[in-house]
Amino acid sequence: MVSGGESHERPVVVCGIGNSTRGDDACGPYVVEMLKDKDSRLSLIDCGLAPENFTGKIKHINPRMIVIVDAADLGRDAGSFEKIDIEKIKGQLMSTHKLPVSLFIEFLQKEIGCAVEFIGIQPKGLGFCEDMSEECVLGCDRVVEMILELVDA
Q1: Domain spanning 4-152 has what CATH number?
Q2: Which end of the chain is more exposed for a tag (fewer CB within 10 A), N or C?
Q3: Do 39 and 19 form a contact (C-beta atoms < 8 A)?
Q4: C-alpha dihedral sign at 21, 24, 29, 30
Q5: CA 69 → CA 33, 125, 129, distances in Å?
Q6: 57-85 burial string, b = 16+ CB within 10 Å, else e?
Q7: Residue 58 above 80 pLDDT?
Q8: DSSP string, 89-107
Q9: How far apart are the first and last CA of the chain?
Q10: Cβ(49)–Cβ(100) under 8 Å?
Q11: Could you read off the pLDDT of 3-33 as tens digits, one per residue?
């Protein structure tokens, strides 16, 4: 059993999900890239399109918290973001990918047993070989700040 003091010594894993060649679908990997060298308590994983391939690595890290960042249809303006209650997305297709991220989250909760946060960022465009929109870049930069605040919480 981990005591409260040791809990804060364990890292926070940030999983960026998305396809870096499809415009704003690169939100997750972009956030991971922008967090490099920002805080030694972060363990960063660019999961690409297959976050399930990284469950063993995440389990080995034994984090105190996992933060998942992905482009998601929030029905809002491009670049908008929000921390979404995990219970609200279970069983739903929130991300822009074919497999529900909720399955990945459920697995992490059962296998690792730590807090899991999901931050969705509203994409503007998902075309192949497009750059990220200015709106999503600005939203992602604000998500980076939000994650750094979560680490200190």
Answers
A1: 3.40.50.1450
A2: N
A3: no
A4: positive
A5: 12, 17, 21
A6: ebeebebbbbbbbbbbebeeebbebeebe
A7: yes
A8: HTTS--BSSSS-HHHHHHH
A9: 21
A10: no
A11: 344 556 789 999 999 999 999 999 999 999 9
Of 127, 120, 153, the residue nearest 23 (C-alpha)? 127
- Which helix (DSSP H) or strand (DSSP E) does residue 27 occupy? helix 27-35
Residue type, 30: Y
Q: In sequence order, what are the beta bridge partners of 48? A: 17
Number of H-type helices and E-type strands within the chain? 6, 5
Counting Cα atoms < 13 Å in the Cβ hemisphere of 4 gives 1
The predicted model scores a pTM of 0.88
Give the three-class secondary structure for 51.
helix
Domain ranges of the chain: 4-152
Amino acid at 42: L
Backbone phi, then psi, for 138, in 5-degree steps?
-65, -40
pLDDT tens string 106-133: 889 888 889 999 999 999 988 787 899 9
3-class state of residue 80 by DSSP: coil
